[in-house]
Write a structure and sequence with these properties.
alpha/beta; Rossmann fold; five-stranded parallel sheet; elongated
């Protein structure tokens, strides 16, 4: 049976202006091995959500000064875009209006205050299990779509590429080339060979892992998504090349 922490696959963000509530939630979730991030208000929560690519869950207080939990929830949903990040509201026991408003704003569940250990842990575990199942489903669909695209590209590229490679070989077999002209033909053959290898690797994609390209634009990480024959994917240990696999350090009370 997997441990609760193995279900996280990311960081949990706690958002509450009350230091006692923050401390209680930190103690509860740390005991389960989760990676935690702490925000004392709405603006800080939004900043963390923008900076952390592996956010797995948000525990959000409804009643906060300034930007309340409802507005934070709406903005978090806008930030997440198509990504699924469950949000659990913390609200007063008899505050039915806020529960309804929170669910309408995009929350997935709620816990009641005063916080109860069993309820908090049960709802967090359920939310993380659901996220993991949805992520796996979306990942499988994404992989199938990219795989089909790679096969199509491979078919469309390989036909003209085979003709190009054949003609380059015929030209290089001739003894009429020397100097710069010969080097350019050799460079062209090397480039065509690299394209051929990339197409072959793309048609054998095993998983979808991205890396930064320019700004917020992502590109496929070939080394992790399409390892070469006999080559194991490199470990995810370089935050500067795999931003979707890094996490900001938790700020604790």
């Amino acid at each position: 049976m997997s441990s609760p922490a193995s279900e996280t696959q990311g960081s949990i963000l706690i958002v509450d202006d009350n230091p006692v509530a923050r401390k209680l939630l930190t103690l509860l979730l740390k005991s389960e091995g989760h990676r935690l991030l702490i925000a004392r208000d709405g603006p800080e929560a939004l900043r963390i959500a923008e900076e952390v690519p592996d956010l797995a869950l948000v525990l959000l207080d409804v009643m906060m000064p300034g930007m309340d939990g409802l507005e934070v929830c709406r903005r978090l949903r806008a930030l997440a875009g198509e990504s699924y990040v469950p949000i659990i509201f913390a609200t007063a026991l008899d505050d039915e209006a806020h529960v309804v408003e929170g669910l309408a704003a995009g929350a997935n569940d709620y816990v009641t205050k005063p916080l109860k250990q069993a309820e908090v842990l049960a709802r967090v575990r359920t939310a993380l299990r659901l996220k993991r199942a949805l992520d796996e489903l979306l990942g499988a669909r994404e992989l199938a779509a990219i795989g089909a695209m790679a096969v199509t590209l491979g078919h469309e590229i390989n036909n003209p590429l085979t003709i190009l490679m054949g003609n380059l070989e015929l030209l290089l077999r001739s003894s009429d080339w020397e100097g710069k002209a010969l080097r350019r033909l050799q460079d062209a053959r090397a480039a065509a060979t690299r394209v051929q290898e990339l197409v072959r690797r793309l048609t054998r994609i095993k998983k979808v892992t991205t890396t930064s390209y320019v700004g917020s634009v992502q590109m496929l990480d070939l080394e992790r998504s399409c390892p070469q024959d006999g080559q194991a994917p490199p470990p995810a240990c370089a935050p500067d090349t795999t931003p979707n696999e890094t996490a900001a350090p938790a700020r604790e009370e």
